[in-house]
Amino acid sequence: MAEDFNRAGMENQVRQVKWLSRRRWLRQAGGGFASVALAALMAEEGLLRPATAGDARLPDRMLNPMAPRPAHYPARAKRVIWIFINGGPSHVDTWDYKPALEKWNGKSLKQFDPHFKNTTGFFKNQVGNIMASPFKFSPRGECGKMVSELFPHLGEHVDKMAFLHSGYTESNNHSPALFMMNTGFARMGFPCVGSWVTYGLGSESRDLPGFVVMSDPKGRGLPKGHAANWGAAFLPGVYQGTHLKPKGPPIENLTPPAGMGSAAQRAQLDYLRALHRGYEQLHPAEAELAARTESFELAYRMQSSAPDAINLAAETQATHRLYGMDNPQCAHFAKQCLIARRMVERGVRFVQIYSGGMENQRSWDGHQDIEGNHRQFAGETDQPVAALLTDLEQRGLLDETLVIWGGEFGRLPIAQTGKKPGRDHNPHCFTFWLAGGGVKGGVSYGESDDLGYKAAVDRIHVNDLHATILRVLGIDHERLTYRYNGRDFRLTDVGGRVIREVLA
């Protein structure tokens, strides 16, 4: 069968040559001669430069779109794990300690801010008074960071973390806020951070996707906006996130059909590549077909490598206990964090794990009963994420891995009225932390006001956060561009400031 496929591919190449008229051959050959001459002149003038991240004109990007590429600057981190706290965690109940909430507890926010007009939250008819945090805070680590009782395990790692306390965004609604946090734009149709990173740097693994996404496995749904949060949009499709299904086979069609052996699959792929090669010769500037071909090749290679990457039985019982695999409350998230470690260990460039599902009590969206909501989801994630930091450090991977914790916005310091008080959305302030390669540990940057209502000192826009993430990876956010519809797009749009104060 393989010989038949190869013979057919050669015959196809002959047909491709016959299709070229003399006029077309002269036109294409003439263009090629001119390109050779231009390249020689540019080389003499020193205008040719080495391949760097984001250069869409490079031949290697067309031949192998996921090939590793050097960064613009020396990089401290080579890969990213983003723990996405879906639904909007309350910064004033987690990492941004506000003792003034006790002093102002039960009073109207208008007494604190006379300009408050009830326009911040999402539920306009359920606005209560200032509410103190139901959680106790205590100093942790050598840096003395005040940490909520929600994080007994993560509190042990604050000396590894850089806290960003003055973030703000542009929407108080989940879908546009998720798009903003993931893509830099508050509407769908733009590439996400993981896609930009793999577009710029490629992947260190030939046998696994460069960008992997995991979502809630407890039947609570996908985050608002679904796959658009990890899509490549107008970038070539090879850079989109590969979603590992939370139930059933993690990756669809990973097992070949019955009766289809490896040799037959290899012959099919060789035949497909031969067909594509003829097309590429006629249309050398089109990279989409190369990306499609590479996706088929990757799927073929993944049949042997992906099962091993997600095989947690290969881990020791001590590792299982470290992550909390024996704890029913957090076992599902422990499994995902352990898979994330195994993925980056094998060269995957970007991993994103969503904690929580659709909205309200199915995620960190604590509109009602903020205490019960956050206790539940912190209990699901605290031990696994702390174990991830410990495990990465023990294996010598943390220095080359950027770990991110944060969601789409924060929550208000006032109560949302109901049977049990909650907190409404707050786009004016949120907290993130970064840990790992390229980040200073035990530092805090920026401040919210006394109640955590608004970012007040050294305000951080989402574009600034993205610029900082790229810089840790050695990428200049202003040079990582892609031309689409006549315009050069980038993750940070026309903004972005690197927060150098938290970089090592």
Please give a quick description of this structure.
This protein has 504 residues and is α/β, with parallel strands linked by helices.
CATH class type of the largest domain: Alpha Beta
Total count of strands = 19
Please report the number of helical segments.
Answer: 13
CATH homology superfamily of the largest domain:
Alkaline Phosphatase, subunit A
Strand proportion: 15-25%
What number of domains? 2
Radius of gyration: 25 Å
CA-based shape: globular
Low-confidence stretches: 1-19, 33-50
| Largest sheet, strands/sense/barrel | 9 strands, mixed
Binned, the helix content reads 25-40%
Q: pLDDT average, as an integer?
A: 86
CATH fold-level label of the largest domain: Alkaline Phosphatase, subunit A
What CATH architecture of the largest domain would you give?
Answer: 3-Layer(aba) Sandwich
Through-space gap between termini: 57 Å
Category from helices, strands and their pairing? alpha/beta
Characteristics of this structure?
alpha/beta, two-stranded antiparallel ribbon, Alkaline Phosphatase, subunit A, disordered N terminus, single chain, 504 residues, nine-stranded mixed beta sheet, 2 domains, 13 helices
Write structural notes for this entry.
The protein is of the alpha/beta class. It folds into two domains: 2-48; 60-106 and 128-247 and 263-307 and 314-502, Alkaline Phosphatase, subunit A (3-Layer(aba) Sandwich). Helices cover 35% and strands 15% of the residues. It has 13 helices and 19 strands. Helix 1 runs parallel beside helix 8, helix 8 packs antiparallel against helix 9 (288-309) and helix 11 runs parallel beside helix 12 (370-394). The protein is globular and about 75 Å long. The termini are far apart.
